[in-house]
Amino acid sequence: MIIDDGMLFRHAEEKDAGTLVKLYDRAARWMRANAIAQWKPGEKDTAHFRARMRDGEVWLAEDPDGRVVGAYELWWSDEEAWGVQPPVAGYVHRLMVEREAAPAGAGRRILGHAEWRIARTGRERARLDCVATNPRLLAYYQGAGYRIVGEYPSKQGKDGKVYGVILLERRLDV
Fold first, then answer.
1. Is the pLDDT of residue 155 over 80?
2. Please, which residues have CB within 8 angstroms of residue 76's CB and are 6 or more apart in sequence?
3. Half-sphere exposure for 65 (CA within 13 Å, toward CB)
4. What digits encode the pLDDT tens for the residues 87-125?
5. Which of 56, 89, 164, 169 is least surrounded by CB atoms within 10 angstroms?
6. What is the 3-class SS of the chain, one letter each residue?
7. Pick the residue with more confidence: 4 or 158?
8. What are the φ/ψ torsions at residue 74 (nearest 5 degrees)?
9. Does this model's pTM top 0.85?
């Protein structure tokens, strides 16, 4: 367990998969309520999060009382969006914040933990992508020090719809 200014970070375990689904669905509902077409409630199930735990890392952020206030997935490759790459980066996915319980600035602190985790492996870059039609999220990541390095215009969702994503990265101090 890692403590960051009152926020505790821990690896998610299989028993946390249901909590991650609820967190994802709440974030997806918030996006829809705010006219952000990105995630859909019900799109990720416990099998998804358990697979991510096996294939990469899933981290939970908790408050001092043990309530989950956020989470993220960390992948060590993302060939679908980034193609085959040398092992110089970690790929942050599904950065989620529990808006009703998280302290101010929780999203940036969770992202900072992901960057710290990537740097601890000796990898020099944090990478992520965001839907090309979400300028608010793009501005958020740019404000956190990420720069646009490309676009993948034809990512396909589970529902078969094709959409574009903006590829962003941040150089880390390792």
1. no
2. 56, 87, 90, 91
3. 5
4. 999 999 999 999 888 888 899 999 999 999 999 999 999
5. 164
6. CEEECCEEEEECCHHHHHHHHHHHHHHHHHHHHCCCCCCCCCCCCHHHHHHHHHHCEEEEEECCCCCEEEEEEEECCCHHHHCCCCCCEEEEEEEEECCCCCCCCHHHHHHHHHHHHHHHCCCCEEEEEEECCCHHHHHHHHHCCCEEEEEEEEEECCCCCEEEEEEEEEECCC
7. 158
8. -125, 120
9. yes
Tokens 């020099």 — which residue? 124
| Sole residue written with tokens 């490759």 | 77
CA gap 145, 128 in Å, rounded: 12
Q: Can you read off the two tokens belonging to residue 146?
A: 């990420």
Q: Give the side-chain half-sphere CA count within 13 A for 106.
A: 23
**Ramachandran category for residue 150: left, alpha or beta (phi over 0 → left; psi -120 to 50 → alpha):** left
User: What's the pLDDT at 153?
Assistant: 83
Going by C-alpha positions, the residue among 43, 3, 1, 2 that lies closest to residue 24 is 43
Paired tokens of 1:
């367990």
pLDDT of residue 36: 80
Bridge-based pairing state of the strands 7-11 and 2-4: antiparallel
pLDDT at 1: 56
